[in-house]
Amino acid sequence: MLLSEIGGEFAFIKRISRRPKHREVVVGIGDDAAVIEFGGKLLAVTTDMLVERDHFSLDYFLPRQIGIKAMESNVSDIAAMGGKPLYAFISICLPKATTVEFIDGFYGGIYESAEENGIDVLGGDTTHGELIVVNITLIGELKKRKRLPLRSCSKEGDLIFVTGNLGASTAGLKLFQRKMDGFDSVKKRHLEPKARMDVSRKIAAIANAMEDVSDGLASEVRNICLASGKGAILFAEKIPINEETRKAAAALGEDPVDCALFGGEDFELVFTVPKKYEGRAKKLGTAVGRITSGSKVFLEKNSAKQELTKFGYDHFA
Fold first, then answer.
1. Distances from the Cα of 29 to the Cα of 22, 169, 244, 260, 290, angstroms
2. What DSSP designation does 40 have?
3. Region 134-144: what's the mean pLDDT?
4. CA-CA distance, 232 to 156, in Å (whole number)?
5. pTM of the model
6. 20 to 30 A Cα–Cα from 63, which one of 39, 53, 83, 145?
7. Exposure on the CB side of residue 97, measured as CA atoms within 13 A
8. pLDDT tens digit string along 14-71?
9. 28 and 66 in contact (C-beta within 8 Å)?
10. CA distance linking residue 123 with residue 118, whole number of Å
11. If you ran DSSP here, which 8-state letter would residue 158 be given?
């Protein structure tokens, strides 16, 4: 059987997962980061990989921007757990023709993001290959709480909120791919994403479940539903999409709602909260739906409700 026939990324993860042996493991495989209790503290550990021609292209990414994206995508996973990032380990595979200027630019972006997020870079590994591959392991610390905002913790009746605006990264990517001029602010959202560390810990104080938007809003909500054994309904008209992204989508001949639902790499946070915290949640994001009984995810658009059967990006679909 080929990997492409395995049934997608979730089937792959399920196939390779094993139950943790150590009692110190609080959260294993299945969330944005693992959580380990160590020395009286809760540590969140994540790792994320970027591959040339898949996650970035040298046709339009500067080396500095590759470093920023690599670091921020990992910081976003720690943010989704309500944690504070602390220590990073950078591993990189480089073609032999790589220039010193590329290395200086790349690590300039790494340290720029690290400085903004209070992270120390403590090591890693280097090797050579045909393509540039970047892998970062990031360790953060969590405040001890009665509960963590895990994907499995959403409740029926929870309201679904999302921070910021969605769809810009995907629209920016399509603009680059089609070599279209203009829409610089939209393109920048793809080139230089920013993890939402500014609001993540406030959200964690009220959220039942939380996840970062790396593979599209529909995919992330589906992940929460699968882990929680719940369903959801999303309201297309309420999904926050800024005007410049809408204009870019129109120029591309794309539906901006599709960019938000199925695109990804916005690195915003989607979270569910009980009704009693609606007022606090409105100060942190936009309500876009609610958690329901059942197991299906529906989209209400133009007063019509339909079940979603496609979701965001899947490496092994």
1. 13, 27, 37, 26, 25
2. T
3. 95
4. 9
5. 0.94
6. 83
7. 2
8. 787 788 889 999 999 989 999 999 988 999 999 999 999 999 999 999 999 999 999 9
9. no
10. 16
11. P
